[in-house]
Amino acid sequence: MIYNLDLWMREIKTMEKIDHIAIVVTNISQAVRWYTNKFDCKVNYEDKSWAELQFANIKLALVLPQDHPPHIAFIDESIENGTKHRDGSESIYEHDTFGNIIEKIKYEKSK
Known about the structure:
Elements: H1 5-11, E1 18-24, H2 28-38, E2 42-46, E3 50-54, E4 59-63, E5 71-75, E6 83-84, E7 90-95, E8 101-106
Parallel strand pairs: 1-4, 5-8
Antiparallel strand pairs: 1-5, 2-3, 3-4, 6-7, 7-8
């Protein structure tokens, strides 16, 4: 039996990519210090309202409860008319059927 590899490869769907998980903390700088002391990660961004830590396989966002909801974010290049963020990304929030907050996010293409 001969398989058409090209046809078979086109039928394989690409899995969704989790961009980041956001957890609520009460103090951004203390949380950044705690996570970077306990784990091998680097700080991608930090200000008084949120921080982003880069791990080998995922990003972890540290957020304040009054500024951002806890959520899980998936890359979705099909987003239109979402909220524009200062880093150039665009996103929308929705809930899954269990009440968890899902963010769909896309980033500006590099030029």
